[in-house]
Amino acid sequence: MNYLAHAYLSFGQDEVLVGNFIGDFVKGKMMNTFPRKVQNGIRLHREIDKYTDTHPLVRAGQSYLRPKFRLYSTVITDIYFDYFLAKNWDRYSDIPLEEFVQNTFETMKHYRQLFPDRFVNMFQWMVEENWLLHYQEIEGIRKTLTGMSRRTRFESKMEIAHLNLMEKEDEFQVIFLAFFKDLETFAQQKLLEIQQSNAGH
Q1: What pLDDT score was predicted for residue 1?
Q2: Alpha carbons 201 and 193: distance in angstroms, whole number
Q3: How many Å apart are CA 15 and CA 20, to the nearest integer?
Q4: What is the largest CA-CA distance in the chain?
Q5: Mean pLDDT of successive 10-residue segments in the chain (201 residues)?
Q6: Separation CA 77–CA 75 (nearest Å)
Q7: What is the pLDDT of residue 150?
Q8: How far apart are CA 13 and CA 107, in angstroms?
Q9: Could you tell me which residues come within 8 angstroms of residue 24 by beta carbon, excluding any fewer than 6 positions away?
């Protein structure tokens, strides 16, 4: 999943949010340098990604993208899902999306001293360009995918992946709505497991 989903699936817990956001930037022994509750968020991030990558509904969506985008189809579906989460935000939260995004950024800034070096610049761009809010627009998705395409080692064609979203938007939305219901239940249960297993350590 992408950043808006990871923020939402932190369930209003600040340290979990921080870990969930920086999860992709924490490798190996770095984990032990973070406070326990942030470590819980990092572990949750990894469990969410693993669950997403193996879910049959997600794989069904990726099978449509794979002939054109190959290994990048997993990254593209993550971005698509943030689009559908933002677009259908009222289904999931009573807090307006703009307010949720601002709260997320303010919380993250409070823990800035914990950011891995490689995350610092990206977070700055994320705030300045308000990525999370713009995920609700096709143009925001296009910009995100184009930016990611510039950073790939191999030709990804991600700069045109928004066209596939426009072509099959209804089908991908059906997949997202069914999948995200499963994911939210999984993430709630998994976070509780992680917190209980780490309690008192």
Answers
A1: 72
A2: 14
A3: 8
A4: 51
A5: 93 97 93 96 97 94 92 93 96 97 97 95 91 93 89 85 94 96 97 87 57
A6: 6
A7: 84
A8: 10
A9: 45
Task: Tell me whether residue 143 is exposed, middle or buried, using C-beta atoms within 10 angstroms of its C-beta: 0 to 12, 13 to 18, 19 or more.
Answer: middle
Which amino acid does the sequence have at 136? Answer: Q
Sign of the dihedral through C-alpha 87, 185, 42, 15 = positive
pTM listed for this prediction: 0.94
Contacts of 157 (CB under 8 A, 6+ apart): 68, 69, 72, 149
How many angstroms separate the Cα of 110 from the Cα of each of 14, 17, 39, 105? 10, 12, 17, 9
**Separation of alpha carbons 10 and 4, rounded Å:** 10
What sign results for the dihedral spanned by CA atoms 138, 139, 143, 146?
A: positive
Domain count, the chain: 1
Burial class (CB in 10 A: 0-12, 13-18, 19+), 33: exposed
Q: Within a 13 Å sphere around the CA of 80, how many CA atoms are in the beta-carbon half?
A: 32
3-state secondary structure of 95: coil
Its domain, for residue 46, covers 3-198
* pLDDT at site 201: 57
